[in-house]
């Protein structure tokens, strides 16, 4: 009892002091404890993905032992079968988000935006990611995390998933339609009105872990221009790859089921090549270039380049499989390198080294799509209150996405950045209250467009 | 054209940045404090471990090179206004065509010779921070003298690092020299809620040291002595101009400047904390030691210094902000500190929380003059618009929600305020 009381008091004190002193703590300044934690997390993920028997998973019909064995009763209660490593992972993941989320809420209890946002994250993790899929499974229906949309959920269009959904009656069809609507209708509309934050820092599971458990590491993200360059060089190619892979898988699926083939092989290739060209442009995008591109001549060069590229590849690949590689291979490759190593081992394992949003910032294809929309077609922005910035740097330091917020704030510039997940911490740590997340309509004042 | 800027604080850095936007002149900056521009108000966060020193540098490391601004670390010894030369302590000479003095200020002494004792310091420069950091673990009891913004910063720093201290404030309420009475009360209460050992109506009149010349006690006007091993004196700042007094540059408290920030010598300019207006802009003090003023002056000077007929410096509508621990304070326009008949105000204060809104207007015309808020954020553009366009207080009241800049989902207090004043005849 005393122990619990002391713990609560410590938590309370911690919350009074906010996030001060992070650079003094070995855990949060890449000290020994930080490195040890990174090692532990990384090893944990390696065990989970590749050697679940280390954790006690019974193979070939043997019963579970050890760590995974502890979860058998819980699993039996929920879905009637013994625990798999994924069930254990789901339980731990949810538990950690709930606990650390509670800490986060106490810490930022004076800021309603943070409280509401975190409750939303906890709700979606507990209900949508954990309970509802378990309930679906226990009712012998296909289990699906209703908020996990393509392309983050890269297997949504895989043949086994489509087959599973199409063979599960009306409920399966509903899930299929829901998944499509989420990606192509609901998400664009919400992103237009609220920015990508509606997903990345209110709903998403990866975001949920980053915001709660990763809160003590947010200042470790790299703020340099070089990091920003690599961000663009990696995230858009990942988006490209996930699109290509999905198309390749769909293509092979349709070819095996010609009766449902509503699009021709050539159409596919055109779409793929267009995507390819578009994303190559995005990946090598440069701010200087961006300014020049409106001048006209560069437009011409880019357009001709794209057309040439498409024609050459298209003619050359007439009779080769889509993307010149077996769809199965693509799938395996993506699942291993991106799904497991990037989003899991590096994404979470490197929290204490590179900050909490490594995956969201450098890898997540969903974040890439939402980011492009946020940058060019959304009302969301962070406004700066007149000339009140004192250039202290708290906003930049505590930005988990590595945005140099101060660079904008000290010039009084409104911040519209593809990577911003709208966590609102910059506005919270600002000692002068200079920043505000906004998504109200843009006003036209004296003929000038203003925010 | 060679322009030499002495000082690389917010004023000096703003001049250099803005000059580069408007001219291709050679720019050299000289500073003895540090080779790069850092955010002075952020020094406290370095002490608290919230940021590293490199995090408080507002401009990227390659900024100066990229914009062809040369930086020399060195101490300027004297200025030869005849030969257009600046002499550095290491003997180096710099020829200039135009000289900009952005010298800043330094902590004001109480006249007790206290700064000659070890263990007595101000909290102003990078060097002050370094001294403080070295001592942190050895301090058994500290005293903060002076109830200003630096005093409260130090209180926050010491509280966070667990250094026991007492906070001596001359007035009856903390902040009563720059806050209206009710606000000063709220802030004082807020500090007391934070368990700050705040001692009001206490002035340091004497200070004593041990045999090694280290401070050991301080004495208040009532004869009370307190044992201390660190004293931070923050009773205000003073322009950094003593070393220039033998030169031909005219100096009163600060360097005297015209409305174009020009000194009595046409090729020399001064701005920021060290500049004193002969004729201050309307409604302003002759010396304004604010971050924002330094920035505004710098931007003005960079733009106008090299033009033929420069316009006068116009700081616009006054604004300032501060934070007392986590309590934010903003002020726009004219808010009198003492109660003036001419400027009554609509004042609302939260029953329990430390929040308040004050809207000041002129008694006869009912014109809105300014406002200040505690624990609530107002939008600068909106407040400025009301003041500039001379809105009546009643229109301001009905449009009050437009000014809100609090984060989303924050509780709104406009209705409470309006409710309280619905029966008045504003």
Q: Could you walk me through the main structural features you see in this protein, from its secondary elements to its overall organization?
A:
The complex is a heterodimer of chains A (451) and B (426). Among the domains of chain A are: 46-140, no CATH class; 226-366, no CATH class; 380-450, 2-Layer Sandwich (Alpha-Beta Plaits), CATH 3.30.70. Chain A has 451 residues and is mainly α. Chain A is globular and about 65 Å long. Chain A has 21 helices and four strands. In chain A, strand 3 and strand 4 (448-450) form a beta hairpin. Mean pLDDT of chain A is 85; it is low at 444-451. The longest helix of chain A has 32 residues, at 225-256. Chain B is of the alpha/beta class and 426 residues long. Chain B has three domains: 2-106 and 238-304, FAD/NAD(P)-binding domain; 114-235, FAD/NAD(P)-binding domain (3-Layer(bba) Sandwich); 319-421, 2-Layer Sandwich (Enolase-like, domain 1). Helix content of chain B is 22%, strand content 26%. Chain B is built from ten helices and 25 strands. In chain B, the strands form seven sheets. Chain B has a five-stranded parallel beta sheet. The model of chain B has no long low-confidence stretch (mean pLDDT 93).
Q: CATH topology of the largest domain in chain B, anyone?
A: FAD/NAD(P)-binding domain
- Binned, the helix content of chain B reads 10-25%
If strands are numbered along the chain, what order do they take across the biggest sheet of chain A?
1-2
Mean pLDDT of chain A: 85
Strand content of chain A: under 5%
Spatial order of strands in the largest sheet of chain B: 3-2-1-7-19
Contiguous helical run count of chain A: 21
| Distance linking N and C termini of chain B | 58 Å
* Strand portion of chain B: 25-35%
Instruction: Give the overall form of chain A.
Output: globular
Compute the number of strand runs of chain B: 25
Quickly name the level 1 CATH class of the largest domain in chain B.
Alpha Beta
DSSP strand tally of chain A: 4
Please name the two chains that share the biggest interface, counting residues whose Cβ lies under 8 Å from a Cβ on the partner chain. A-B, 37 and 39 residues
> SS-based structural class of chain B?
alpha/beta
Main β-sheet description of chain A:
2 strands, antiparallel
**What is the assigned CATH homologous superfamily of the largest domain in chain B?**
FAD/NAD(P)-binding domain
Shape of chain B: globular
Task: Write the CATH architecture name of the largest domain in chain B.
Answer: 3-Layer(bba) Sandwich
Helices of chain B, by number, come to 10
